[in-house]
Amino acid sequence: MILVINNHGQYNHRIHRTLHYLKIPSELVPNTTSLSEIEDKNPKGLILGGGPSVERSGNSTEYVKKLDYPILGICLGHQIIAKAYGGEIGSAGSESYAQIQINIQDEDDIFKGLGPQLDVWASHKDEVTKIPPKFEILASSPICDIEAMKHPEKPLYGIQFHPEVYHTPEGPKVFENFYEVCREYHKTD
């Protein structure tokens, strides 16, 4: 099962619903859920949903730093991962709420079969402005240098865009690819 961490964003329920349509077992849980409650649920992975601000992200930073599961951060979730590992977030140089095209630099893992370009729904108010040490950039766009990133050794992924909305036509494939990462990760347990 994938736990979708609700960070109070308008699309968190849509993430859960998209996983349901894809027949990926999931549960939507509040970002105040304790680490032990998360571990008791024995998830295959976590998705950190979007939200208004890092200040309202509850225990999300702790999940990123202390739990050993694959994690996909979406929008605010992406920023939480970056900040937790020493990156920087700030206001976007170009605020945008529109469909844009991102350039995929690494099709491995979550972008498998989706490159080299992907149309996505961008929500740029805040963004990762400096990638954390050791992280790799997976995708960029003309308005954002760090549209997606991953940790080179841990299954941690961050994406600035929203794969759960209609305006990201291939978005479901991102979730399917992440679920495959989770399944592969747990084969090695």
Question: What secondary-structure arrangement, pairings included, does this model have?
Answer:
Layout: E1 2-6, H1 12-21, E2 26-30, H2 35-41, E3 45-48, H3 60-66, E4 71-74, H4 76-84, E5 88-104, E6 117-130, E7 136-141, E8 144-150, E9 156-159, H5 171-187
Parallel strand pairs: 1-2, 1-3, 3-4, 4-9
Antiparallel strand pairs: 5-6, 5-7, 7-8, 8-9
Fill in the keyword field for this structure.
alpha/beta; nine-stranded mixed beta sheet; Rossmann fold; 189 residues; 5 helices; 35% strand; 26% helix
Describe it.
The chain is α/β, with parallel strands linked by helices and 189 residues long. It has helices spanning 12-21, 35-41, 60-66, 76-84, 171-187; strands spanning 2-6, 26-30, 45-48, 71-74, 88-104, 117-130, 136-141, 144-150, 156-159. The protein has one domain (2-187): Class I glutamine amidotransferase (GATase) domain (Rossmann fold). It has a 9-stranded mixed β-sheet, with helices on both faces.
